[in-house]
Amino acid sequence: MTARHIVLAITGASGALYGLRLTEELLRSGIRVTLLISRCGFTVLREECGLDWEGAPEAVTEKAWDYFAAAISMGRDETVFEPVISYYAEDDFIAPVASGSSAPDAMVVAPCSMGSLARIAAGLSGTLLERTADCMHKEGRPLLLVPRETPLSAIHLENMLKLARLGVRIVPAMPGFYGKPETMDDLVDFMVGKVLDQLGVEHLLFQRWGV
Fold this sequence. Notes:
Largest sheet: 6 strands, parallel
Mean pLDDT: 93
Pfam families: Flavoprotein (PF02441)
Family: Belongs to the UbiX/PAD1 family.
Radius of gyration: 16 Å
CATH class: Alpha Beta
Distance between the termini: 33 Å
Low-confidence stretches: 75-79
Protein name: Flavin prenyltransferase UbiX
Organism: Geobacter argillaceus
Keywords: Flavoprotein, FMN, Prenyltransferase, Transferase
């Protein structure tokens, strides 16, 4: 059986760690991941996570492979993990994910900036990230956005409402505290778990209410 294929996009909103942690869990679940990173997304990865990934597609793919292989294999002695991950530049409109005939099973934008959200809501395709989101719309595939902004303006809210009415899942970066989080990782895991729930991917990242 062919492995599920999910596109994970990281934009310039604060919270790149959400995208990294989510990618890690998807790969751990045996899901093939295509990584898309906006120009500002590379800046946030560097400033917030200390990851200088910007460069040619081959170099970005290699750095991502090394990062996720190390993260997933950490503490494991019994298996050698080989993530199935690829990266395409934002101007690569001949990438497979740019075509509806090769649309992935789902796409997640985490974190999603208000600029990216607005362009997705307008159906623009100025970058590969936006074109892929447009493909998800027209092919009826799941599209999840993890917006990270505060406070929210009326424009932000109207764009999210428009997308929600079109079937896009809006999963804002609003971690819950009923599980009594003790670390920042606990808060990140809560949000990542909420996205995984929407994708139908099993996980044990947070304590469910009443369980």
